[in-house]
UniProtKB/TrEMBL annotation:
One of its GO terms (molecular function) is oxidoreductase activity. Keywords: Flavoprotein, FMN, Oxidoreductase. It comes from the Bacteria. SUPFAM superfamilies: Flavoproteins. This is FMN reductase. Residues 1-143 form the NADPH-dependent FMN reductase-like domain. It comes from Salipaludibacillus neizhouensis. It holds the Pfam family FMN_red. The keyword Transferase does not apply.
Amino acid sequence: MKIVGLSGSIVGSKTRIAMNSAKKALTEKYPDLEMTLIDLADYDVKFSDGRNFLDYEGDTGFVTKTIMEADAIIIGTPIFQASIPAALKNIFDLLPVNAFQDKVVSMLVTAGSPKHYLVADLQLKPILSYMKAQIVQTYVFIEERDFHQKEIVNDDVLHRLDRLVEDTVVLTETFKKVREDKEAEYDF
């Protein structure tokens, strides 16, 4: 199983810290799984110009192809001005409309205020649904107060990250089994 962690911003550190915690939880609990962590701050991703994702080269091609080859994606996003970052929206624009078909997508959200709790429900989930994702319904919301000196200090958040990783893996395995059983019904 290939899992991609996507840290969806080019600025700040809290989302990357949370994504590192999710990766650590995944590699400790599921050491045989392959996880690639993509932090958009580390890549020079071009703006979408409507081309097929396979036509992009360099960092843009690497990021889009890696996402398309994944079985599951854990998206980490900060909330800026009550919205997802443009860098993350650009990733969605670079991919085809059915990019997440047969993929499980889970989310963790970092925000400076509890007022931004519903942004994932009202903005991110509709985009993922439109792109055919199987969405892990519960997501981890992490506030500014949950961090101290570049670490997550809230044990409840760490527990919820562990559960998010587990839910992502279990749902991915479940959907894979369902698809295999469905395909086995056809006699070709």
